[in-house]
Recover the amino acids of this structure.
């Protein structure tokens, strides 16, 4: 197979280059490209039965979402999570008439919107929407598996300070700003706030106690709720935001929109549709689920060395809205989590044509059998492991019985670089385009599993001719599973190659993931 993609502009030293990126590949034969599903953990967080803002009681939902952030914070030596709990539709029931002073949670649909007769906040900002119980909550952990929800006492819930509620964003993208001179703004969070129906920025000294007094105006324009996942692209010194939007057609089809800014404060560009389902996505949904169409519900994405990696929530609509149904949802259907990638963070490709789930939904009575609906804005990468926390749902998107709307949090893990594999059942070859590695490289490192066969490497000139001393016969073979295999030739050293070259991988019953140019 030949690929007519442009050459990459630059290959960086000591950064793994994923062969998921087809733009690097000149040709391949005997190769199957397969998504490598993450290894799922057991549930790491349940809706708390003693926390009515999560476990809302009879006739109401039990749901927590990872519309939010997980990270390891070296400033406090803990894993930290800012997640989202949703109480609604609590106002329809007397037992759900919750009181949270300081957060706008009105009890009726009356307009103008008010909270106990008050129509604006302490700064004079008018309430512009009826809240659905959106609450940002906080948890922390010593190991990333066992999480504690501390009683923070920031807000009272029905008169009690014993809760972990910190704000009311519909998903919080949290950042530690190590360049910030004002210690009270060391932590920053951005997300959709239903009180004012727009995107706002809040700041904190500790990641727990937040303030918005310096950012009373929205930093980006948006009218609809949903994920607003923001990531920082350090290579381009740019914040990128991926959000849910809808087309203005009869189906109101969900798509992924994009905006960017040099700072969280802005200016943010106008959000525009970026990633939308194709006819092939519709066909995949029809084949797998008998779906009417495909929609894209959410995208969490981040810069990963040479490319951007994203987890895309694909909603396969199996039924339309039922008119007059209580607690109705716009449509029904499962949501699958699929892996996508991009060279620029804007134009995206699916990792495989089959749209294989990279975090598969569970089977039988599994807690995540209905949807993988939300993933943290980016994973935690530690050593040789990648951990991405996600929301698993028992139900599909249109479940009208609120008591069946149960969501829990778990995590999926991958070994370093192993999102997608280039696999040879027998003999196979993968040849890159001409690469321009940095000067002074001292070695070539390959991430591969050849435990059932053999892997060899050749270096070729720009015409594909094997360079002297770098043929497969001179290469010491790999015949085991290695994340960092140091490629060696008997009488040649890669540090002596001064011009651009191609890498040719010769596989026999082996699997290839990535390579790295090493530089001391």
């Amino acid at each position: 197979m030949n690929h007519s993609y442009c050459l990459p502009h630059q290959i960086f030293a000591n950064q793994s280059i994923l062969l998921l990126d087809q733009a690097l590949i000149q040709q391949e034969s005997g190769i199957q490209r397969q998504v490598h599903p993450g290894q799922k953990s057991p549930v790491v967080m349940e809706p708390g039965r003693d926390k009515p803002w999560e476990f809302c009681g009879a006739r109401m939902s039990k749901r927590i979402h990872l519309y939010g952030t997980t990270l390891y914070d070296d400033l406090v030596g803990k894993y930290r999570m800012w997640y989202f709990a949703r109480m609604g539709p609590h106002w329809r029931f007397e037992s759900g008439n919750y009181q949270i002073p300081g957060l706008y949670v009105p009890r009726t649909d009356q307009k103008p919107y008010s909270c106990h007769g008050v129509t604006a906040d302490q700064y004079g900002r008018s309430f512009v929407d009826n809240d659905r119980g959106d609450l940002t909550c906080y948890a922390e952990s010593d190991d990333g598996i066992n999480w504690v929800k501390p009683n923070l006492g920031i807000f009272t819930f029905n008169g009690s300070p014993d809760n972990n509620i910190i704000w009311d964003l519909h998903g919080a993208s949290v950042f530690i700003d190590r360049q910030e001179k004002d210690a009270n703004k060391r932590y920053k969070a951005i997300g959709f706030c239903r009180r004012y129906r727009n995107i706002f920025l809040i700041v904190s000294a500790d990641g727990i106690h937040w303030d918005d007094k310096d950012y009373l105006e929205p930093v980006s324009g948006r009218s609809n709720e949903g994920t607003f996942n923001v990531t920082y692209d350090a290579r381009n010194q740019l914040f990128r935001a991926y959000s849910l939007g809808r087309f203005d057609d009869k189906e109101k089809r969900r798509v992924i929109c994009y905006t960017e800014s040099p700072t969280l404060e802005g200016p943010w560009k106008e959000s525009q549709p970026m990633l939308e389902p194709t006819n092939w996505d519709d066909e995949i949904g029809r084949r797998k689920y008998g779906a009417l169409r495909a929609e894209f519900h959410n995208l969490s994405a981040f810069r990963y060395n040479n490319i951007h990696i994203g987890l895309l929530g694909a909603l396969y609509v199996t039924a339309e809205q039922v008119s007059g149904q209580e607690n109705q949802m716009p449509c029904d259907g499962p949501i699958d989590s699929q892996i996508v990638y991009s060279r620029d963070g804007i134009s995206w490709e699916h990792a495989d044509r089959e749209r294989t789930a990279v975090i598969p939904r569970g089977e039988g009575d599994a807690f995540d059998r209905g949807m993988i609906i939300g993933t943290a804005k980016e994973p935690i990468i530690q050593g040789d492991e990648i951990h991405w926390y996600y929301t698993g749902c028992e139900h599909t998107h249109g479940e009208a019985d609120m008591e069946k709307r149960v969501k829990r949090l778990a995590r999926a893990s991958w070994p370093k670089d192993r999102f997608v594999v280039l696999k040879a059942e027998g003999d196979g070859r993968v040849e890159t385009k001409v690469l321009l590695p940095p000067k002074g490289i001292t070695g070539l490192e390959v991430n591969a599993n050849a435990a059932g066969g053999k892997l060899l490497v050749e270096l070729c000139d720009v015409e594909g001719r094997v360079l002297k001393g770098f043929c497969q016969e001179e290469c010491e073979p790999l015949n085991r599973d290695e994340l960092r295999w140091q490629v060696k030739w008997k009488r040649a050293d890669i540090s002596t190659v001064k011009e651009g070259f191609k890498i040719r991988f010769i596989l026999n019953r082996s699997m290839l993931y990535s390579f790295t140019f090493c530089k001391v």
